[in-house]
Design a protein that fits this description.
The protein is mainly β. Helices cover about 10% and strands about 45% of the residues. The protein is built from six helices and 19 strands. A hairpin with a 2-residue loop joins strand 3 and strand 4. It is globular and about 60 Å long. The two termini are about 40 Å apart.
Amino acid sequence: MLSTALTFSIHEAQAVPSFARQTGISCSGCHTQSFGPNLTPMGRDFKLNGYTMSTGSDANSKLPPISAMVVGSFTHLDNKLPEAPPGHHTNNNASFDEASLFYAGKVYSKLGAFVQLTYNGIEDILELDNTDIRLSDKVKLGDQDFVYGLSFNNSPTTQDLWNTTPVWGYPYASSELTNTPGASTLIEGGLAQNSGGATAYMMWNNLLYLEAGAYASFSTQFQRNVGIAESAAADKIDGGAPYWRIALQHQLGGHYFSLGTFGLRANIVPGRDHSLGLNEYSDLGVDANYQFLGSSKHIFEYKASYIREDQKLGSGFLAGGNAANMNNRLFSLHSNASYTYDQTYSVNLGYFRTTGSHDTLLYASNTAMKPNSEGFIAELDYVPFGKSDSTLSPWLNLRFALQYTGYTKFDGAQYNYDGSGRNASSNNTLFLNGWLIF
């Protein structure tokens, strides 16, 4: 089990103007909300084929496909934090969250890339963010299209197409300046940016998708060089961690459906100290996605994923004294529904739940000694640009989001979850954020 007191994620960056300039297609052609990771069938096809389709204003340009983004936010909790994050207040924080530079588009021939370099304003560091470099091609097998390729990326599910897996799933942004549950499965960010992976994939007849590969931890020196020095001294994958993905998709008129499974198997060396032994994690997920795209004004979406993690805590149980059980399990459920009008206004409602084994040492800081957390995330979005007739299209995009996260259970209990009298609802968070990308 990997835990963290504070988390921060901005996933919106996959909708970058350099893609629109290269393809000649507005952001709304590839994204259901004009600006954000929610892909349409066209957007999934563009990513599947390696970000290389070139029919737009930049198709014959010698300039690199560069975009940039700045993000700011305001965070309010129902009950202030017991201790203020460094450089901030215990509550009501207005913050400059990040500034990012992207290389996003065709590199050469069949090679394309999405590379994000980010200045994290909360932690005051420069770091290599989500990266996906692809080499792909398409051939005919009989009368059917067959797409195949390779992805080189720095986080499991960065390369995924369906917005149901951890990296590009809902919520697409969350605050670092609030409490978040301490337990999550390994595939839900435990290897993000501190590991590198190579996977091979194929799509047959725009129906069946198969992918397999493996991940390994970056060296401590490389992690320091790319701005993740804190992770450099943290856990390490022993050898390689296999990853797989299977999905079926089908579009019937304006209705799009997908159903899939994904997973990861990793042996982790805590603190990179082999003398303590290994912790073994096996993550198995299933996911589903439905989109109604039959109207130019109205888009409906529903997404869900469920992950089961089997843990064999050899290090924590035998050597470290950090786990009372040798074998534990963790279960993670995420679902969300959304309605978008004119690819400008969106209403989103999500539900999440984490449950797991009772362990008196692993969850000793929780009064219930369980990892269980549950709640909902409601969000309103406004995206004024990103359509073909928008101002400065395809050079500029803007998004505002008002999000409220409510907890009915937090780190094992509804009331007094940590023994200090703090309740789950104390961590309810109002989060207002805005992105400008150009």
